Amino acid sequence: MSLPEKSYYDNKEVTEALSNLMVLLFQTVKLDSAKERAQRVLDLEKRFASNNLTAAQLDERWVIPEYWTQKQFLRQFPIISEQVDLSSVPKKWSIHKYTPELYKFTENALKNENLETLKDYLIFRLVHYTLDFSNPEWEQTYRKFRHQHLGFPAERRPLDEECTRLVQSEMGEELAAEMILTVYKSYPRKEFTALVEKVRHSLLLGIKNNPWMESQSRSHASAKIKNLRLGLLYPTKKEDWRFPPEKTFSIEHYIQNRTLRQKALQERTFAELKKPRSLTAWSLTPMAFDAYYNRAENRFYFPVGFAMKPIYDPEKSELFNIASMGSLIGHELGHSLDKFGSQYNEFGAKRPLFTEKDQKKFEEFSQQFIKQFEHADHDGNLNFGRKHC
């Protein structure tokens, strides 16, 4: 979808602005009947959005252990199967029933939708982010739309910053590997790790002294935190970097370079599917400006791109850095015991941590968070699971 969430398509002002944006793009690339093309594409997106799920529903669906075999998927969605080339995936791998509504919609669209509409949709999706420097009118209109309706800045960032962000997002692993030899050469990894361990220890004490958990729940929760693996700063072994296959990039052909990069990432994915999953390889670029918890790995990531001033300052005292980072680390570690994290054991297998009695208590306590959000005129259920520990 061109818009972030399905409810946006119910906003007439937003969809009219999006339609005008589509018209301008088709005019910019010199296609006739721009208004008709835009209307068809927008109608297609609206139908897709109506079949989509909300963020809360997607969170719920993610932890439901329902799967198709590849034969079942191929029989139900033959056109999609042909497009994604399942021949590259080991036959024993199943396919998660994450969004069967969208698979069905897409299968029907590829089979029955007007071909020109699908072509126009593809043109808009592929071209809309590549026209800014060659077409100033488009760039200004696109930026205004994103500012007014999607919350983006009114002015573009300096070009050197945009270039840095692009390289970071497209080639974060390679960039980080170079930077740890220079910028991060003297990074105090030992001190940073010790600080994270102190927060882990504090969380273990909280579980030990928890007044409402039964002993079985406390034991499982403690085991999960003790076994929680730390992906801190950057990988220390070459194989854990997960560098994609090398490609020869051009200094002149931007679109071709991005296409080559996507091909390399796809090749890496298919190659990894054919081997046992690595428990030490990183699933996050070390240059990411974020920290997160992966419940399938029972792993906490705090990349070096995020562990910088003012979040972490090695020149400041431990007390200062605990105050600065403690809530971030505690938040992410807390995800291991939240609504969804508590459904997985210390090995990342889907095994609930809490007894049925404690699960009911947990849900009762969670209602207080939901009420807090609703008091601030937000849908509390949309935030349920984001941090309930």
List the helices and strands and how they pair.
Blueprint: H1 12-28, H2 34-51, H3 55-62, E1 67-68, H4 70-76, H5 78-84, E2 95-96, H6 100-112, H7 115-127, H8 136-150, H9 159-170, H10 172-179, H11 189-208, H12 215-227, E3 229-233, H13 254-273, E4 292-294, E5 299-303, H14 318-334, H15 356-375, H16 380-383
Parallel strand pairs: 3-5
Antiparallel strand pairs: 1-2, 4-5
Describe the structure.
It is a single chain. The chain is mainly alpha-helical and 389 residues long. The protein folds into three domains: 105 residues, no CATH class; 164 residues, 3-Layer(aba) Sandwich (Collagenase (Catalytic Domain)), CATH 3.40.390; 38 residues. It contains 16 helices and five strands. The protein has a three-stranded mixed beta sheet with strand order 3-5-4, covered by helices on one side. α1 crosses α2, α2 packs across α7 and α11 crosses α14. The two termini are 33 Å apart. The mean pLDDT is 90.
